[in-house]
Amino acid sequence: MTNFKVHQALQVQQVHSGPGAAPHDLEGDLASLRGDCARMAPHWAAPDRITTLPVSPSRIHGVTVPPASARLVDAMPEYGD
Known about the structure:
mainly alpha
């Protein structure tokens, strides 16, 4: 569904600001956005933390990794040897 008020406001803004100008905030500022998020946060429940158990490499099958990707991961200090 198109919000015609916002769409029209953006068209007017582009005419007055020029094509390369940054868009203006139509609904409020960062503080109001953070306030909205803080009010909505209690409505969302975080899932329980799931702990995974190690899996034997012999049980992992059907996974193929391109050689370039394997070299990339191997070169990362977090994952490589």
